[in-house]
UniProtKB/TrEMBL annotation, chain A:
Residue ranges of domain ABC transporter in the record: 5-232
InterPro entries, A to Z: AAA+_ATPase, ABC_transporter-like_ATP-bd, ABC_transporter-like_CS, ABC_transporter_ATP-bind, P-loop_NTPase
PANTHER family associated with the record: ALIPHATIC SULFONATES IMPORT ATP-BINDING PROTEIN SSUB (PTHR42788:SF13), TAURINE IMPORT ATP-BINDING PROTEIN-RELATED (PTHR42788)
An example molecular function term from Gene Ontology annotations: ATP binding
Stated name of the protein: ABC transporter ATP-binding protein
From TrEMBL, chain B:
Name listed for the protein in its UniProt record: ABC transporter permease
Membrane topology reported for the UniProt record: Multi-pass membrane protein
Residue intervals passing through the bilayer: 105-126, 138-157, 163-182, 203-220, 226-247, 259-280
Keywords: Cell membrane, Membrane, Transmembrane, Transmembrane helix, Transport
Subcellular location: Cell membrane
DNA repair found in the keyword field: no
Family according to the record: Belongs to the binding-protein-dependent transport system permease family.
InterPro entries: MetI-like, MetI-like_sf
Length: 306, 290
């Protein structure tokens, strides 16, 4: 298997108000061609920073990121980014938003309209092309954002907690749709999430990051086979086992992150005040048929965190 | 989050060229543009709005007649309307209105031409902002009318100084709103557009400018109101035509009904211009709902 994306000793240090803050340190890992890699880590560990670097929106302080063997030097249409807050242009219709990426790519006007329609169909929004973002639900907006990123046909899709703001039902159906699209289009996907369930459900592999400064703690293979062909995968005991493994890896990091935050609070330098690990509390219990055994129950989870 | 990002724009303006409350609060007093009302409620609202005006007009007509106020200084409304009609039919009014509108619209139009590009430049390019900020701070805190004598001194009593002072007064709300509009564009939109590899120029054209348009129009609407206010003051000195001239001239000759006719005309014009600009503003910011 060839590496589509390769991080080589990547570090990122921010200097804000005279202080140096090391967000990422010595990140070294690879994403294979056509792979769906989920990335989890405590809040503030540098996941979004890592994604920005890969998207070419900022430059690493140390190390190098390669896409197809060539170093990333800036943004490019070979990588499409999907943000949690959709980032749709509010003055453009859904259709025109999808066309936005195509304009950037220099696709001819006629073809733009056809392609945009095609991708709106693909994400289940046929007939919504003339709606403005404020006329769409959160789930629909995220579908538009996904359609926009798919439309200019990037090899790599970078997604930063794309479903975090959505309700459980919408999230479930978008997860399945994303998997279907991925299976059909062979894109390489790097998917950042706070949900352990989501990571195990979506990822062929799950990379777990340490608390700040973020490093890759471990990458876990999730050999669960095709998600879309398995009925109710989440209640599978193997699913629960992976879920527990990642949960354990994360718990230690969350504790560390909390200690860090407390120290920061104490010194009055708290950068961000956010729920420390909303993922643990938020991640859903298996939908049904939860089995007794070593698998963590959600009570167990919350008790462990708070 | 995405939606609230727009409602907080006034607060997020950078400290330096922070617009003054009056000029900047782009949302102040704006009823939701497309708030839907039921027909009955609409009639009710219209009745409510006109009630106060009707009362004022009634008082204006009756009080002088009952000698509750001196009719020499405030003639009854009917007399004023008569005077207005005479002015209108003799073509005098049209002549004054034309002179006034020509000044107002030239100053206003030139202000748009100057202030929008300048505001975009200052909002988008940090170095330009740093260079010009101190200057802007000094001048925007100087009332336009305080500078009127200076304009007259330098540019003379003719049209140039009048148009120039209107231009000057109108430029500020447009300039400050344009700067604020550019500065407060949702950073996520910029980031997302950058991730598509858009060049800075195209990024500006496709994201920053459209995002700033509603705020720019708020500035333009405010400037429209200013253009009338300043116009009258400018016409009080050294004009030979115009509504401001009509008002002062009538007052000087103790032609009190004519004076009020001029005042009524100017407020009617102000009202119409403002309504037109409000419509225009809504037309360009309909996406900024929710
Ligand atoms: N531009 C910046 N300047 C200074 N510090 C920054 C900047 N961007 C991020 N940071 C800091 O770097 C660290 C990592 O931030 P990042 O947003 O990547 O975390 P994250 O893992 O995405 O968090 P979350 O899960 O909450 O989204 C944080 O401590 C953050 O405060
Ligand atoms: Mg993040």
């Amino acid at each position: 298997m060839t590496a589509k994306i390769s991080f080589q000793g990547v570090g990122k240090t921010f200097s804000s108000r005279g202080r140096q803050l090391s967000a990422l340190e010595d990140i070294t890992f690879e994403v294979r061609r056509g792979e769906f890699l989920a990335l989890v880590g405590p809040s503030g560990c540098g996941k979004s920073t890592l994604l920005d670097l890969l998207a070419g929106l900022s430059a690493p302080t140390t190390g190098e990121i390669l896409v197809d063997g060539a170093p990333v030097t800036g943004p490019g249409l070979d990588r499409g980014v999907v943000f949690q807050q959709y980032a749709l242009l509010p003055w453009r219709t859904a259709q025109a938003n999808v066309e936005f990426g195509l304009e950037a790519k220099g696709v001819a006007r006629r073809e733009r309209a056809d392609r945009a329609r095609h991708f709106l169909d693909l994400v289940g929004l046929s007939g919504f092309g003339d709606r403005y973002p404020h006329e769409l639900s959160g789930g629909m907006k995220q579908r538009v954002a996904i359609a926009r990123s798919l439309a200019f046909d990037p090899d790599v899709l970078l997604m930063d907690e794309p479903f975090a703001a959505l309700d459980a039902q919408t999230r479930d159906s978008l997860q399945d749709e994303l998997l279907r699209i991925w299976e059909r289009t062979n894109k390489t996907i790097l998917f950042i999430t706070h949900g352990i369930d989501e990571a195990v459900y979506l990822g062929q592999r799950v990379a777990v990051m340490t608390s700040r400064p973020g490093r890759i703690k471990k990458i876990i293979d999730i050999p669960l086979g095709s998600r879309t062909e398995t009925e109710d995968l989440r209640s599978d005991p193997t699913f629960a086992r992976y879920r527990h493994e990642i949960w354990t890896l994360l718990r230690d990091e969350v504790v560390k992150a909390q200690a860090q935050e407390h120290a920061a609070d104490h010194w009055g330098t708290a950068g961000e005040r956010r729920p420390r690990w909303h993922g643990l509390a938020r991640s859903r219990p298996p939908r049904r048929g939860r089995r007794p055994g070593p698998a963590p129950t959600s009570d167990h989870q919350e008790a462990g965190v708070d | 989050m995405t939606s609230t990002a727009y409602s907080t724009r006034a607060d997020t303006t950078t400290a330096t060229v922070d617009s003054s409350p009056d000029e900047s609060a782009p949302f102040a007093g704006d009823a939701g543009p497309f708030r839907r009302r039921r027909p009955v409620a609409l009639v009710g609202a219209v009745a409510q709005r006109t009630a106060a005006i009707a009362a004022l007009l009634a008082v204006w007509e009756t009080f002088p007649r009952l000698n509750l106020v001196d009719p020499t200084f405030l003639p009854p409304l009917s007399q004023v309307i008569e005077a207005w009609w005479t002015l209108a039919t003799t073509g005098q009014l049209a002549q004054h209105v034309e002179a006034s509108l020509a000044r107002s619209l030239s100053g206003f139009g030139l202000a748009i031409l100057v202030a929008v590009p300048l505001g975009l430049l200052i909002g988008w390019y940090r170095p330009v902002a740093t260079l010009l900020n101190p200057l802007l701070e000094v001048f925007r805190n100087t009332a336009a009318l305080a500078l009127l004598p200076v304009f007259v001194l330098i540019l003379g009593l003719g049209e140039t100084s009048k148009i120039a002072i209107i231009l000057y007064g109108c430029a500020w709300p447009i300039l400050l709103n344009t700067i604020s509009g550019v500065r407060t564009v949702d950073p996520l939109l910029v980031k997302s557009a950058r991730s598509l590899g858009l060049s800075p120029l195209r990024l500006f054209g496709k994201v920053v400018l459209p995002a700033a348009v509603p705020t720019i129009f708020t500035g333009i609407r405010l400037a429209g109101a200013y253009s009338i206010l300043i116009l009258i003051a400018a016409e009080l000195v050294g004009a030979k035509a115009g509504l401001g001239y009509l008002i002062t001239y009538a007052q000087f000759n103790f032609d009190v009904p004519d004076m009020y006719a001029g005042i009524i005309t100017i407020s009617a014009i102000g009202l119409v211009i403002n309504q037109l600009l409000v419509l225009l503003e809504h037309r360009f910011s309909s996406w900024r709902t929710s």
